[in-house]
Amino acid sequence: MDELLTALANVSGQLVPILGAVALVFLCIMLKKCWALIESLTNTIKGLDPTLRLVDKSIEKVQAPLDTAVKYSHSLDKVHDKTAEAFGKAADFAVENMNGIKELIQEKTGSLETAAAPEGEVNE
After folding, report:
1. pLDDT one-digit tens code per residue, 69-87
2. What whole-number distance in Å separates Cα of residue 123 and Cα of residue 117?
């Protein structure tokens, strides 16, 4: 058992520096690939810069018509509110003065019926 442990200690003593060197090589390869990826991303982002500037200019051009549409929308909202208010007031007035309106209509229809009826006949 002691001989086995001694032999394993000798082998591991020789393998540790070799495995360390292999690990460093893999680490260098991985760092090189990461560096290439970062450079590729940087170039891609630089290529997008003109496109983003073009989009900004297009958005600035569209902003003025959008502002106009918002102004018209607010104007239409105000017109709608005033119209709804006017109809509400007219309905309230009609409800409050229903009897007067009813009498007025009866007077007008009664005078029309008497005018349309032949002489001697009165519609009731």
Report:
1. 999 999 999 999 999 999 9
2. 7
